[in-house]
């Protein structure tokens, strides 16, 4: 409610002039609650007093956000660690989040590679002294794979710094439409909000943030109509692999947002008669997410300084889809 000179004003376009007294009430700080959910099972890869390494299933959102208050990784971790509910101001992270509750793992430079004052995800901490699970990086809702969660403030700060300085080792596997022209390559293309659709990301020269990905073709599938590709990230931009895969003309199959689904994907699988259109459509209907899996994660242990590397093979839906393609 806004008052001008003591009277309630309901017209947003009403002008004011020098001497007018404008009064208003600001809403209190919006807060989101992360409720412990011990009933959610975690696939634990490794755990000690400082860190928890898990394999996130596809379909699980990392962090509570608008529309995703329950069933997230944070809810599960709170339940696993027997911690009370976590209440954090939503405004501390929402401006860098996408619709899945994800934001950049390393908050580095825009279009140049060097920048000494890069922020890290630790800036979203509300109370650095509290003991609670610290989310230091994200995986998209549809992406499965290995993630690390900090169990105390010291570990959280250390891991955030490692992501910000780009020393964390990450490898993913994806099933792409078609086969890249070169068996190995490096993609350096800035990633930012798609100016035509703010809910998506895109390669945006001049306005995007510096992003670099390395890829290597592991196997050719479906007689060249698809490929199994390993990705190594140098940066961690939102949807980076998905955007870079689309950028080189080989979107991730199952990725409806970035060109890997629908009629275009059906046509790509059916090229040269490898599949008929009906069979290609039926095969794609068996997957309900982008075929992307975070297979390995390596970092320096926050307390011991030991180099640690963890891996998980892709889940059943990924393997079954790859096997079906390999049969052609």
Automatic annotation (TrEMBL):
<feature type="region of interest" description="Disordered">
    <location>
        <begin position="1"/>
        <end position="32"/>
    </location>
</feature>
<dbReference type="GO" id="GO:0009982">
    <property type="term" value="F:pseudouridine synthase activity"/>
</dbReference>
<feature type="compositionally biased region" description="Basic and acidic residues">
    <location>
        <begin position="1"/>
        <end position="12"/>
    </location>
</feature>
<dbReference type="GO" id="GO:0003723">
    <property type="term" value="F:RNA binding"/>
</dbReference>
<dbReference type="InterPro" id="IPR006224">
    <property type="entry name" value="PsdUridine_synth_RluA-like_CS"/>
</dbReference>
<dbReference type="GO" id="GO:0000455">
    <property type="term" value="P:enzyme-directed rRNA pseudouridine synthesis"/>
</dbReference>
<feature type="compositionally biased region" description="Acidic residues">
    <location>
        <begin position="100"/>
        <end position="128"/>
    </location>
</feature>
<protein>
    <submittedName>
        <fullName>Pseudouridine synthase</fullName>
    </submittedName>
</protein>
<comment type="similarity">
    <text>Belongs to the pseudouridine synthase RluA family.</text>
</comment>
<dbReference type="InterPro" id="IPR050188">
    <property type="entry name" value="RluA_PseudoU_synthase"/>
</dbReference>
<dbReference type="InterPro" id="IPR006145">
    <property type="entry name" value="PsdUridine_synth_RsuA/RluA"/>
</dbReference>
<dbReference type="Pfam" id="PF00849">
    <property type="entry name" value="PseudoU_synth_2"/>
</dbReference>
<feature type="domain" description="Pseudouridine synthase RsuA/RluA-like">
    <location>
        <begin position="51"/>
        <end position="247"/>
    </location>
</feature>
<keyword id="KW-0694">RNA-binding</keyword>
<feature type="region of interest" description="Disordered">
    <location>
        <begin position="91"/>
        <end position="133"/>
    </location>
</feature>
<dbReference type="InterPro" id="IPR020103">
    <property type="entry name" value="PsdUridine_synth_cat_dom_sf"/>
</dbReference>
């Amino acid at each position: 409610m806004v008052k001008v000179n003591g009277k309630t004003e309901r017209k947003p376009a009403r002008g004011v002039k020098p001497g007018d007294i404008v009064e208003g009430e600001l809403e209190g700080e919006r807060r989101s609650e992360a409720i412990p959910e011990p009933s959610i099972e975690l696939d634990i890869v490794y755990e000690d007093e400082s860190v928890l390494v898990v394999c996130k299933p596809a379909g699980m959102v990392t962090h509570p956000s608008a529309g995703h208050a329950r069933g997230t990784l944070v809810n599960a971790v709170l339940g696993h660690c027997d911690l009370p509910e976590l209440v954090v101001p939503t405004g501390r992270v929402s401006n860098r989040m996408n619709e899945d509750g994800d934001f950049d793992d390393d908050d580095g430079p825009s279009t140049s590679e060097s920048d000494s004052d890069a922020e890290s995800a630790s800036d979203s901490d509300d109370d650095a002294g509290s003991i609670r699970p610290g989310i230091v990086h994200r995986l998209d809702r549809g992406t499965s794979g290995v993630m690390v969660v900090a169990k105390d403030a010291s570990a959280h700060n250390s891991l955030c710094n490692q992501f910000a300085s780009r020393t964390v080792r990450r490898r993913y596997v994806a099933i792409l439409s078609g086969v890249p022209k070169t068996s190995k390559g490096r993609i350096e293309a800035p990633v930012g909000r798609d100016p035509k659709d703010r809910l998506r990301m895109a390669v945006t020269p001049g306005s995007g943030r510096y992003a670099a990905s390395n890829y290597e073709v592991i196997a050719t599938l479906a007689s060249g109509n698809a490929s199994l590709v390993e990705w190594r990230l140098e940066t961690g931009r939102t949807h980076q692999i998905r955007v870079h895969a689309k950028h080189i003309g080989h979107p991730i199959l199952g990725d409806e947002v970035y060109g890997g689904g629908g009629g275009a994907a059906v046509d790509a699988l059916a090229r040269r008669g490898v599949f008929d259109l009906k069979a290609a459509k039926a095969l794609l209907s068996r997957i309900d997410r982008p075929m992307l899996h975070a297979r390995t994660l390596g970092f320096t242990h926050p307390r011991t300084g030991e180099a640690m590397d963890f891996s998980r093979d892709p889940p059943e839906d990924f393997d079954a889809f790859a096997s079906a393609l390999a049969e052609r």
